[in-house]
User: Fold this.
Amino acid sequence: MKPKARTTKISAATRKQPTAKATDSTRSLGGLAVSTIAALVLVVAMVAVFANGNSAPQSAQTIVSVPTSVSNLASVPPPVSTNEPNILPSPTRQVLATPTVHIWPSPYPIQGIIASAMNSTSEVGIGQKSTIDRTVPISQLIWAPTGDKIMYLTKSGDLFWSNTDGSNATLLQHYAEVYDQLDEQMPMTNTLLIRHLGALQPDGTRAASYMDVINFTTGQPPTLQQGPNLPHAPHHLRWWSPTRASGIAHTGEDGGDLLVTVDQNGNLVSEVNVPYMLSGAVRPGGVWLAYATSYQVQNPLDGSSPQAVYLLNLTTGQRLQVTAGGSVGAWSPDGNWFVMSSQAGVAVVSPDGQQWLTLPDPFASSAAVWSPDSKYLAYATVQDLSSDGETISGWQGAVHIVNIPARKVSNLSDGSMRKLAPQGAALMWQPKWSRTSSLLSFLSFNPECPSECSQLTPAIFIMSPTQ
Assistant:
C-alpha cells in the first residue's frame, strides 16, 4: 500500500458559551422617595462596574500614545544591555476570575501602513561544523543561556544537558508528556523556565502545574528546582526583562485566555485576561503586548474582531488594531520589531505597527527565531511532495536567514537542503541560535514522525552562517 500524503486539519475548538441567568424578583415599592433611592442604587452599581478594570473607548482624536517607532529604519540599534537593566514595573492589573471577560477599549485602526518587500538573495550560506547522533529520537533542542552547552528533549520525555558535540550528556528531568517545553525563550540572564504540567488524574483533571527553574553557570552542571504551583502554567514563555517572563494560558472557558507573568523563580506575578488571545508576545520592557485573536471565535463576548492582530498597552489599556487575521511571533531582543503573519504573508513589523517588511517566501513562518543581536531571523520549512495529492514521493526542505539591516532574505538551500545519512536524506528544521548569534542548530527531520522527533543519525546539526 502506498503511503498517503498527510493532510493537516485545523479543527475549530468548541468553546462553551456561558449562559446568562436571570432571576426576576418583584417588589412593590410605593412613593417617590423609594423610587429615588432605587435610582441612586442603580447609578452607584453602574459606576462600580465601570471602574472594575474597564475604561471608556478612545476615539481616533484622543489616542494618548503609540509604541515608539524606529527612528532609523536603515539600521538596527544594538541590543538592550543586560549588564545594568532598567527594569520597568510589571503590569499591575487586577487578576480577573475566569470566565469573567475583561472588556478592553475599542481598538484604534493603525493608519498609514508602509509595506515593503525584502529582496531574495543567496549572499548567506551555512557551513557544517558538527553533527550529533543519539540512540533515542530527539523532540526539541535549545541552547543553554551560557552559550557553551545545549539542552535537548527526547521523544520519550528525557531532558538532557550536554556539550555542543553531544558528549557528557546529563539527565536533568523526565517529563511524562512531551509538548512545547523547549520553546525559544530569548533569556536575558542564565535562567530558563520550563512548564511542567501536572499529571493527569483518573477523573480527567490534572495535578497542580508549576515551572521547572533551571539556573546555569559556565563550566558547571545546571541546577533544576521546582517552582511553586501555578493556577495556570503558561506556554510560549518569553523574557521581557531579566526578572520577568510572560506566556499564554488557555483556561478552556469562552474568552478566558490569560497573559501570565512569572518571575525568575517561577512565582506568579500577574494574570491579565486578554480574551481570545491565540498567540502573542510582550515587548521587551513589559508595556506593550502584540497578540492575535483566535479565528475560531465567531461571536466574541468582548466585541473584538473574530481574527485580528492587536497592540495592547498593558499599563493604560490602549489598544491598536494592526491588521485583520494572522498570528504573532516573537519580538526582537532589542524591541524594534515583531514577527507577524497576515493575509499578505509573513512580515517583520515595527513597534508602532506602521512599517512592514514582508518576506518574499509564501511558506515563511511567523515562528521564525531571532538571533540574540536582533540582526537576523531564521526559519526552516519541510514539505511533502506528491504529484497526485495522495502518494508522498519525497520531501523538500528549505532554510532561510533574514538579514534585517540589509532587508534581504537568503535561501540557504534553494529548496533541496539534504544531508546524506545512513537512514536516508535528512532535512533540517527547528533552527535555534547560539547566544553569540554565530551558530545555528537544527534537528534532522524524520518522515516517520515529522511533528515529534528527529532521525537518529544525525539527530542534530551545528551550522555556521557564512558570507
Q: What stands out?
A: Helices lie at 32-51.
